[in-house]
Batch of 2 targets.
Target 1
Amino acid sequence: MTIPSFHLFVQTLILGLLVGGVYALMASGLTLIFGVMRVINVAHGAFLILGAYLTYELFQNFQIDPIASILITMPVFFVIGWILQRYMLSRIANPEKTSVLVTFSLALVMEGLLGIIFQTTARSVTPSYTSEALMFATYRFPVTRLIGFGVALLIILLLYLILQYTNLGRAIRATTQDPRAAQLMGINTSMISAFTFALGVSTAAAGGSLLSIIYSFNPSSQADWIGRTLSIIVLGGMGSIPGALIAALILGVMEQMTAIVITLYWSPIVFYFFLFFTLIIRPQGLMGEIIREKG
Amino acid sequence: MKSKIWNLMISIAVAALLITACGGAATTQAPTAPATDAPVVTEAPVATEAPAEPPIKIGASLPLTGDFSDPGTAAEKGYKLWADVVNKSGGLLGRQVELVIYDNASNPDTAVADYERLITEDKVDLVVGPFSSKLVIPTSEVAAKYGYAFPEPAGGAEHVFDRGLTNIFFAQPAPSSEQSIPFAEFILGLPEDSRPKTFAVITGDDPFSISVVDSTAKLLTDGGMTMVLREVYPADTKDFSSLAAKVADLDPDLIVGGTQFEDSVGQIKAYQQAGYQPRGAMFTTGPSLPKEFDEALGAATEGIFAPISWFEESTIETNPEFVQAYHAMYGADPIAEDSANSFTVGQIVQQAVENIQSLDNTLLIEEMHKATFTTVVGPLSFDEVGRPKGSFMVLQWQGGKIVIVGPDFARQVDAIWPKPNW
């Protein structure tokens, strides 16, 4: 173990928070889908990578800035998510029990198709600002991570505002709390489910764009990301977007701090210890609600 | 109710069919091919006349996907080129050569299963090795179990040689622990006022990388330099930002990176973002891939060193012919060292077989220990456990191209020092 200098400590804190914001965006769609539909979308990592590839293609062929391409990829993914939910997932008889298997097979199919279309060479999107960093009070803010953090927070804020202050948002929250009661109140829960799934998948498009400028990726990277995002939503409380944000920031900071204090090998371990102990004390996660099985 | 179950079953069946048809990276043993190529079992007999005898089957399992996919696909090109060259000039012992190549997705367990299958089911006459010490170590034991010779293009870590196997032949000029001698000699030979004093070793957890960087570290510390940091990271690490911040905080003069391709790029980009500008940098793999490294980093490649076993302009006997044949088959892109290494394996196999006029593996192993082979990396001979006896070279990126800067016998131009900002 090495005690870092104060400068290194703060610098690492900054890096952790910046990357935590991006993790939060990636996890927000997943937690939303679980909250409303009780579906664990194991294909979420694959959607992130699909979003990254789409961003890559738009950048390589049309020189579209990866952040700008979010405006293209999010609507496209919304439509894909809608179709997927309406015509495939909604037909599953027992979503709570079988969604993991079905979405897992979807993830594998997507990984395989991506491998055939794009081959397995690692890719990343490299706009002109890739290796730059802003200096502020002797600390470095890598431009790609700073932008990622900003965009992620913006989208999460928008998501939160929609959920809190629009009728649609209220309908979604009602369905999350109690689907049967919501139905009795006149909410079309199957439409809400389709909309929520589509919204969740479209955030994966944005998450994928940010991923593409910060990390390198190939089709099998989807497995790395689904593990991370699932841990975040479990810690944050499944169905809670603020919870996902806090959990993601915690993960980001812990990962980066562990890398400099111990070594990179310990990064995932330290986070999982934290998750483990939190769940012992508070099984519903930091901000989750206790879900009672209806008899 | 019934139609719902029916729909579900059909969906799952379709999904299952798609999965097996697509053959995702780690899930299948079936021979796979790069998307643009014809099926993998290649080098069918050239059809000028019906061959009198069945073809000689040579088997290999390569990492065409996964962590080692870049050098792995380069190695495949070398093998295929060699088979093509041999077949065009009449074959081996008058018979055509047929390669049987499987994709192990950079996974050691898959590679082991592949060689078992090649030897016991496909009944190949000979096998040649995969890329990377990590894969060579377990698969060489399979070959040894069946008494097969195992010439291999890229497994030079100590652990390849210290298990007492005698069927391995590492087809590069020197084992991993000796590959950075020319680089260390250059650094320690710099004049006192410009010589770096401190260095850091940042390596992925891979037997080859660790072997090279640790031996480099020993040479440098024996020469009076100080190692300020040694870190090993998991092989599939993508995020180097905090590691880079740590290195930047210590600011060593020289960075020694133990990398494959992806993490070399990842490290360098992270150092750029962290504002770390060393006076010199060496990476083990990565800078040796002339096309991919340049595409990923552009001007940031300037001044970076790497140990190398071969270079394209070399006039060593058989190399100009190899370069010409390579470009005729694959186009004008620069050649990766790994293709030359696998071609070398082919040359060793060909010369050994022709020397003793036999495909018997026991006799071949004996011959490979005795003879000196004429290859594109120079004359090669091996000690009793397959360590090659020769010298490596050190390359540097200058003006967007790779040039050889040492040792004396191979130098094309002088090295630049210190490294410009990346």
Target 2
Amino acid sequence: MAGRALDVAQVLPADVRAGERRGEWRRFAANQRALAGAVVLAALAMSAVLAPVLAPYDPSEQRSGAVAKPPSAAHPMGTDNFGRDVLSRALWGGRVTQAVGLLSMAVSVIVGVVVGGLAGFYGRGIDAVLMRLTETVVTFPTFFLLLTLVAVFGARLWLLILAIGLTSWPITARVVRAEFLTLREREFVQASRALGAGALRTMARHILPNVVPVIVVAATLRVAYVILVEAGLSYLGVGVPPPAASWGSMVADGREYLFRAWWISFFPGLFIFLTVMTYNLVGDGLRDAFDPQRAVVDKPRRV
Amino acid sequence: MRRYLIRRVAQLVPVLLGIAIVTFVIIRLAPGDPASMLVDTTLLSPEELQRFRAGLGLDAPLPVQFVTLLKQLATGEILSLRTGQPVLAMIADRVPITAALLGGAIVLSLLAGVPMGVMSARRPYGHLDNWLSIAALGGISLPGFWFGLILMWVFAGILHVLPASGAGPTMSLQYTALDMVPYFVLPTVVLASGLLPPIMRYTRSSMLDALAQDYVRTARSKGLSELLVLYRHALRNALLPVVTVVGLLVPLLIGSTAVIETVFAMPGIGRLVVEAALNRDYPTIMTLNLMTAVVVLVSTLVVDALYAVLDPRIELE
């Protein structure tokens, strides 16, 4: 009977159910690692938003008197081969990298949710076709295809975002499908169908709100992944088009001067690492908070 | 088993055809003329340009060009648009380098990742486990090219113990395979840094499952040493899922050779993909994409087969 009581609670609209979620935020806040990640993440995001205010210099201003100077009080991260301030460039570059990361993630998650949702809800033929497609994208080294695409079409920001998004959705599709598969059989969904609700309404109003935690976790971890992909492409010179500089292209710019002026490559790369790491920390923390069952499985079982 | 293998190989055909079409369409839909990559087309008269393009087969309708390309591929006559060399020979030249890098990275990350996973599972949520799991998270968060540059700076620029880049000593014309080894150390480590964390994580969770089993309790109560229990009894059963993970990570690993081989100036397959893509050498790109797809699909097939061999309870269907 306990199971049934739970199902009745699930029929309530999302705002009534919100109270049940409180435990998740408490669990997240108790996870020091995830909390630290969230703080750094917020700082990195703020630094991107406030780059025009925070940057001590004009990122493209070249100073012939200060070429490739090591980190100092005036230039905390040194200057590059054109005498530009590395910190200011990294702050502005962070806007590009983080914006491209978030937008690519949005494309990736939307495609993943639609594919996974349809496959899980309808099952059978649709499921078989969509899952075969997903499997193909997973097994294929998509980075080569991505490289080909952006290299031949030339550097275009929207194309880069779309291409990264369209090659990174399968993992999201798989977890969303699994959720839809189990929720489809639940009583509150059956009840909604029996009351005459259409497929679209059932999916959007009754199933999707319950899949939100899974989507949030997948989306957070996806940002980490797509930032690495964009950084790799930008390092190869086919990512974010100039004159905009992303962290990846800044690392590439410093490669020639690596042995004489390590700071030109080092600091932008450090920003990539920090950003990706914090998204991973927060994503892991959210997963444990939303899904305590999983964390318990990992706990030691004494014999 | 045989029926399973036949079915899997048959499934390859539509996937490969799809990849061929997607690659071809992407490149031929892109603005600009592939011929302009070979010559400055503005210097040619319209007639000369037409003759030049006809010589490359670029004047035929696209579907005809596609079929011609597939035929050339099947007979091994496919030529690079950029160098005019046979593509298959170009690839064959470069396969050993990438194969050595991938093989080295897989062996290295298994040798290090599995024991680390076992140690993690010994005391879950203990100090060691916590530090290792943070390190694993750091490992998957490292941009390979940046990590590669840092290693290069430290080991070649400061310590002078390893060469910075290249696949062998360029000064002498004659060198043995042994002389090449130092050149492979850093790129192999960088590739392994992406593979090790997932191997470690999977070993850990798989070991936790194994350690909770009755046979482990039996082994312990017999008074066997902890090492023997961990490695002889638990790990043997825990390794199976780890094999699958390596198989699943192969596509990602192959993809990352493009960046790593560029960083370390290694003339391997990944670098060839970058060069071909930047030069719109579409016969080469298409061949490379198809070949990597075959390698990936075959490796997943091998993993599945291995799974069935290692665990007789699993039946492939």
